[in-house]
Prior knowledge:
mainly alpha; single chain
Amino acid sequence: MKEKIKEFAIKNLKWIILFVCLIGFLALAEDVFNKEIMNGDIVGYKIISDFLISDFATPIAKFITNFGGSIALIVITMLLFICIKNKKIGISIFLNLCIATGLNLTLKHILQRPRPTDYRIINETGYSFPSGHSMISMAFYGFIIYLIYKYVKNKYLKASLIALLSILIILIGISRIYLGVHYTSDVLAGFLIAISYLVIYISAINKFLLERD
């Protein structure tokens, strides 16, 4: 019985991940829909403000957060499209960015959570939940991580690139809380829904584009 459960879990791991992340996102979205400020939001910012905020760290946070912004993502997408010989991969990267952006804007419009106002270091407009930088960075760089895992043959280069991009995703999320433009739950929700989305997108893009001759 245990072996069957283990076999089932391994076989359906990506769908289990999708389900767990989606449930987590919906739980956060419910609280936001009910206009609640969660304890995690307060605790998350307090940890960052107590241990990270300083004159030295602020320019770094501002620099890192740009990697999740529209300009950086569009430039990276264009460079990858030009540099990658397989244009199907380039198209899949472009489509991913467009869909993830559209999904984020749709969710923001539905939930319409105002941004925090008490401790902003930079100015941002628009709604807060889920964090666009966090969600789109997870979707964009997460897909790049998948492509690196699938296509890069050198195991040391592969591990280094995956680790670097994974750290970048996390730092972008932290930077949004640090800069006072998002609650902790905005960032977490952005990560969760992006992971759920990626499971579906990767499955679809492999079926209809990347694995076709």
